[in-house]
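Z., the sequence and structure:
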Amino acid sequence: MDNGSNFRSRQLAIICARLGIALIHARPYHAAGKGKIERYFRTCRQQLLAPLEAQGIPDLDTLNRRFRSWLEAEYHHRPHRGLDGEIPLDRWARTAGQIRYPDPGIDLERMFLFEVSRKVSKARTVSLHSRIYEVDPVLQGQTVTLRYDPAAPPARPLLVVHDGKPAGIATLLDLHANTEVRRGSPGLRFGPLEDDPETP
């Protein structure tokens, strides 16, 4: 991948590690390492975007439809110098057996969850994006990992991981219920949630 900021993030590195993907960035100012993708971008600009800009693109859905149509009907059926004159569709058919697919049993939705570390307060709370969540009292003073979908509604519980093991969930703070909790009291024993895979 490129070294640009949009290609570098801790979350991307975590997700790749979970899926067993090696994330390799091109050396700065080493154009040859990015030649193939840069050539593809140029082809997209010349063959797809230039004609569309003249016609106007009303919305993103239209652009996506035109892109898929161009990719399947034109790009995949033209000989490529980088493929020694082969068309991409033929090269794919010849080498597709080398592609490693994820295990069908993997919960991909959970693999793509974001994660952050937080220290649990004495009030057994943690904060995320200016919202306060409560966790099991047994985690008071501990550093935990919150795993969440950034696109999910705030009320959706967050998965909590402690010392590499599932440790229940974090829910939006209920101020009234939280005041009734005895500080320092042991919480429920925690372990893997039902159908929650082992955390890597």
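The beta strands are 114-119, 125-128, 131-134, 143-148, 158-162, 165-172. The mean pLDDT is 83.

Let me know what you think.
H.
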